[in-house]
């Protein structure tokens, strides 16, 4: 259960103010079908994070536990520091909007997640906990917790949540996970 809850918390905090959250805000403003946007986000995230967690578990199995511990620990700290940098506001490619709320959301959200902080966090969490199902469930739940309110509440939420404070909190969380991982005897924290 630690993998599940760590994945929810880590991904939810990392997602706040992220480019994919801004993409969700754009898609919600563009399409009236909010449920289709949320469904598209869910499918795109599930597919993306399933692949990411698979890669993380595979890496943990293919590399010695000591090397994984150092790679994961240092990577957590690097992701934490990366979170301090605000994302650039990028407008999605309008040619995909013709596929409707669901189709455009699945494609654009999946593509936006590639190389994103939350995708990398999912790889790291899966490598750390070696639990594909718990990390995928937790990371998808975390992303949905941070993104669904944006779809339905939009601008009101973005004005009330200070992005800088969220980035600093997420940085601290990932750096602490990195230090705990480096200080541990192995990659599991049980």
Query: What's the multimeric state?
Result: single chain
Low-pLDDT residue spans: 186-190
Terminal CA distance reads: 10 Å
Radius of gyration: 16 Å
Rough shape?
globular
The tally of structural domains comes to 1
User: Structural class of the secondary elements?
Assistant: mainly alpha
**Helical fraction:** over 70%
Order of helices and strands: HHHHHHHHH
Main beta sheet: none
How much of the residues is beta strand, in percent?
A: under 5%
Family: Belongs to the GDT1 family.
Subcellular location: Membrane
InterPro entries: GDT1-like
Membrane topology: Multi-pass membrane protein
Features:
disordered C terminus, 190 residues, 78% helix, 9 helices, mainly alpha, single chain
Give the helices and strands, then pairings.
Layout: H1 2-15, H2 19-30, H3 34-62, H4 65-82, H5 100-113, H6 117-129, H7 132-153, H8 155-160, H9 163-183
Helix pairs in contact: 1-6, 1-7, 2-5, 2-7, 3-5, 3-6, 3-7, 4-6, 4-9, 6-7
């Amino acid at each position: 259960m630690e993998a599940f809850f760590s994945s929810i918390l880590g991904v939810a905090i990392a997602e706040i103010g992220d480019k994919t959250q801004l993409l969700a805000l754009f898609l919600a403003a563009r399409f009236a079908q909010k449920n289709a946007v949320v469904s598209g986000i869910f499918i795109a995230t599930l597919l993306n994070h399933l692949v990411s967690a698979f890669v993380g578990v595979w890496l943990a199995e293919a590399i010695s536990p000591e090397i994984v511990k150092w790679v994961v620990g240092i990577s957590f700290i690097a992701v934490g520091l990366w979170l301090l940098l605000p994302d650039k506001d990028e407008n999605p490619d309008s040619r995909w909007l013709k596929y409707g709320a669901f189709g455009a959301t699945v494609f654009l959200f999946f593509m936006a997640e590639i190389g994103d902080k939350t995708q990398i966090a999912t790889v790291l969490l899966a490598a750390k906990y070696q639990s594909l199902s718990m990390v995928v469930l937790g990371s998808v739940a975390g992303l949905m917790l941070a993104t669904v309110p944006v779809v339905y509440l939009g601008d009101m939420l973005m004005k009330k949540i200070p992005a800088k404070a969220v980035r600093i909190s997420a940085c601290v969380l990932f750096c602490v996970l990195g230090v705990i991982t480096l200080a541990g005897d192995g990659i599991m924290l049980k």
